[in-house]
Amino acid sequence: MAKSILNPSYPELWQALDGLKSVRTYAEGTPVFQVGRPADGIYLVEKGEVRLTMPSSQKVERTFEIAGPGTVLGLSETMTGEAHKLSAEAASQAQLAYVERGSLLEFLREHHQVCLQIVRLLSEDLHGLYQRFQCMSSEEKARRKASPASVN
Asked: Domain residue spans in the chain?
């Protein structure tokens, strides 16, 4: 799940990463990263929107979220060194700042306060995903109750 770091809780985080980032511009439809590929850094949406998609059992990607300015992408995977769980592409022309994983980890070793903000951000992501799952589960239960039982 993408999380905005431009909210009032994280101004220091955004500013702290300023010296580590390189800015890239993506045309609409340009891939940013792909599911299953190694997460080699985080992306900070500065302008535009990025569509996050997830694979489905029908082999058609489903939109998971549209991320706007101030959103950090790929944080969980970058921190763990795992592959991306979602794919991302520019939903419009977008400007993203990129922070390479090694530089980020080195920076966090030296700046404990920023490290704590990252932990808080990841925790908020986890809670948000849990709430989203709960809502999806409730909606599915409601659909099952509303649909008539099949009779053989």
From this structure: 3-142
pLDDT digits (tens, 9 = 90+) for 28-77: 999 999 999 999 999 999 999 999 998 877 677 788 889 999 888 998 89
Query: What's the chain look like in SS3?
Result: CCEECCCCCCHHHHHHHHHCCEEEEECCCCEEECCCCECCEEEEEEECCEEEEECCCCCCCEEEEEECCCEEECHHHHHHCCECCCEEEECCCEEEEEEEHHHHHHHHHHCHHHHHHHHHHHHHHHHHHHHHHHHHHHHHHHHHHHCCCCCC
Residue positions counted in the chain: 152
Q: Which residue has the higher pLDDT, 16 or 148?
A: 16
Q: Is the domain 3-142 a CATH 2.60.120.10 member?
A: yes
Comparing CA positions, the residue from 142, 48, 149, 39 lying closest to residue 89 is 48
